[in-house]
Amino acid sequence: MNLYRRQMLAAAMAITACCAGLGVAQAAGYPAKPITVIVSYPPGGDTDAIARLFAEKLGERLKQSVIVENKGGAGGTVGNAYVGRAAPDGYTLLFTPNPFTTAPMVLGLSPAQSYDVLNGFEPINQTAVQPLVLVANPKTGFKTVKDMIDAAKAGKTVSYASPGAGSPMHVIAEWLNREARVSIQHVPYRGVGPSVTDVVAGHVDTAWVTLGPVTQYFATGRLVPLAIGDVKRSPLAPNIPTLVESGYKDIVVGAWNGFFAPKGTPADVVKLLNGHLNEILKQPDVVQKLATYGAFPHGGEPAELGRTNAREYEVVGGIIKSLGIKAQ
Questions:
Q1: Domain final residue, candidates 212, 228, 244
Q2: Is 20 contained in some domain?
Q3: Is 17 a member of any domain?
Q4: Confidence of residue 4 (pLDDT cuts 50, 70, 90)
Q5: What is the C-alpha to C-alpha distance for residues 220 and 215, in angstroms, rounded to an integer?
Q6: Are 145 and 199 members of one domain?
Q7: For 256, how many CA atoms within 13 A lie in the half-sphere containing its CB?
């Protein structure tokens, strides 16, 4: 091999080594600036509070500012779409509950109009799960799901509140309506908080909500728990039976939340964030704080959140389509 060819080969090898090292250096240098976590709902709700808890803990571990920014609107699709269009560099993340998966179909939006639910994001971590609970105002006299169904079948007007059309709470209630062959009237609200306030006040008979905001009313008798929407009873409220126990074995709908990043975010960045979040979910103060929202830490590999999202799209999305649930 002549000198010229040896010099060219050495140069090519040096360039290859440099490029290979560059990817490692970029991953190792992340994050070099503040990270923004988008929450697609207004401040003050469970999603916002849990996002801020994780942002604080991530910031401590990454030694970098992690800022929560609220971009509400159109059932969460405004903020979700914003992240879907963001640069895939790990500096814009999405923290979202599971309406992320079904909101576009409820609103009748195509991927081009909103975002690609299944292929437009990199899953990072399914951080927590929250069981849904059916509660009643004590003045209704309902003690069980059967009481409520019997009243509806007897011709009594019965209503239920949900935090909005297409929410998991709306889906499970309409699924129960279909299976029980009743027509309990839907009263949609803009969030869990207002729906809880009105069922406590007696303006609406019942409500499907997450467990955290209502447990305080059980001991005082201001709300009566009727059923949990999960497959098993909740350790946070073991005395509340499930819909399965009440005779509706197929009706299981829960709530979950998690972190996503724009499609194309480097795998090393996703892996780094996933690892930190898994460690955060083991911290006793985080477990305790999540319990106040009726939530349990979940965690796992990014692919697990991907599978959860796909399953939600197929199962809950199928129920939404079969029931004709649309934004109101």
A1: 228
A2: no
A3: no
A4: very low
A5: 10
A6: yes
A7: 23
Q: Give the Cα separation of 250 and 125 in Å (integer).
A: 27
Q: Which residue spans within the chain are E strands per DSSP? A: 35-39, 66-70, 92-97, 121-136, 159-162, 185-188, 206-210, 224-228, 254-262, 296-297
Q: Per the domain annotation, does 239 fall within a domain? A: no
For the stretch 117-167, pLDDT in tens is 999 999 999 999 999 999 999 999 999 999 999 999 999 999 999 988 888
Domain range for 173 is 131-228
Q: Establish if 63 belongs to a structural domain.
A: yes
Q: Is 288 exposed, middle or buried (0-12, 13-18, 19+ CB in 10 A)?
A: exposed
The total number of structural domains in the chain stands at 2
Looking at the structure, tell me whether residues 189 and 259 fall in a common domain.
Answer: no
Torsion sign (Cα): 118, 209, 234, 244: negative
CATH number at residue 185: 3.40.190.10
Q: Do 222 and 267 sit in the same domain of this protein? A: no
What are the distances in angstroms from CA 300 to CA 53, 119, 247, 258?
A: 18, 20, 32, 11
β-strand partners of 255: 130
> Helix, strand, or coil here: 117?
coil
pTM of the model: 0.84
DSSP 273-286: HHHHHHHHTT-HHH
> Could you tell me the CATH number of the domain that includes residue 306?
3.40.190.150
Cα–Cα–Cα angle for 97, 45, 285, rounded to 5 degrees: 80
Q: Both tokens of residue 233?
A: 């009873």
What single letter denotes the amino acid at residue 171?
A: V
In DSSP terms, 37 is beta-bridged to 68, 93
Sign, CA dihedral 302-304-307-311, equals: negative
